[in-house]
Amino acid sequence: MNREGAPGKSPEEMYIQQKVRVLLMLRKMGSNLTASEEEFLRTYAGVVSSQLSQLPQHSIDQGESQPGAQ
């Protein structure tokens, strides 16, 4: 994946997209987001929906346990 820059995207758009992705990953990992971070995600709901489909899936999301875990 080329991270040097996306054609047709401004630095501000790239920043918003990256911030949304980081906040979503933090939330997915169980971190509590601040009120301002939650507001940011609500403000950029369109970006959020496109980023959600790109988040990696983890075994914890499917409720799978690790071998040997009780």
From TrEMBL:
<dbReference type="GO" id="GO:0045669">
    <property type="term" value="P:positive regulation of osteoblast differentiation"/>
</dbReference>
<keyword id="KW-0539">Nucleus</keyword>
<dbReference type="InterPro" id="IPR009428">
    <property type="entry name" value="ICAT_dom"/>
</dbReference>
<dbReference type="GO" id="GO:0008013">
    <property type="term" value="F:beta-catenin binding"/>
</dbReference>
<dbReference type="GO" id="GO:0060633">
    <property type="term" value="P:negative regulation of transcription initiation by RNA polymerase II"/>
</dbReference>
<dbReference type="GO" id="GO:0070016">
    <property type="term" value="F:armadillo repeat domain binding"/>
</dbReference>
<comment type="similarity">
    <text>Belongs to the CTNNBIP1 family.</text>
</comment>
<dbReference type="GO" id="GO:0072201">
    <property type="term" value="P:negative regulation of mesenchymal cell proliferation"/>
</dbReference>
<dbReference type="GO" id="GO:0002528">
    <property type="term" value="P:regulation of vascular permeability involved in acute inflammatory response"/>
</dbReference>
<comment type="subunit">
    <text>Binds CTNNB1.</text>
</comment>
<dbReference type="GO" id="GO:0090090">
    <property type="term" value="P:negative regulation of canonical Wnt signaling pathway"/>
</dbReference>
<dbReference type="GO" id="GO:0140416">
    <property type="term" value="F:transcription regulator inhibitor activity"/>
</dbReference>
<dbReference type="GO" id="GO:0030877">
    <property type="term" value="C:beta-catenin destruction complex"/>
</dbReference>
<keyword id="KW-0597">Phosphoprotein</keyword>
<keyword id="KW-0879">Wnt signaling pathway</keyword>
<protein>
    <recommendedName>
        <fullName>Beta-catenin-interacting protein 1</fullName>
    </recommendedName>
</protein>
<dbReference type="GO" id="GO:0005829">
    <property type="term" value="C:cytosol"/>
</dbReference>
<dbReference type="GO" id="GO:0005634">
    <property type="term" value="C:nucleus"/>
</dbReference>
<dbReference type="GO" id="GO:0045657">
    <property type="term" value="P:positive regulation of monocyte differentiation"/>
</dbReference>
<dbReference type="Pfam" id="PF06384">
    <property type="entry name" value="ICAT"/>
</dbReference>
<feature type="domain" description="Beta-catenin-interacting ICAT">
    <location>
        <begin position="1"/>
        <end position="64"/>
    </location>
</feature>
<dbReference type="GO" id="GO:0031333">
    <property type="term" value="P:negative regulation of protein-containing complex assembly"/>
</dbReference>
<dbReference type="InterPro" id="IPR036911">
    <property type="entry name" value="ICAT_sf"/>
</dbReference>
<dbReference type="GO" id="GO:0001223">
    <property type="term" value="F:transcription coactivator binding"/>
</dbReference>
<dbReference type="GO" id="GO:0060070">
    <property type="term" value="P:canonical Wnt signaling pathway"/>
</dbReference>
<keyword id="KW-0963">Cytoplasm</keyword>
<comment type="function">
    <text>Prevents the interaction between CTNNB1 and TCF family members, and acts as a negative regulator of the Wnt signaling pathway.</text>
</comment>
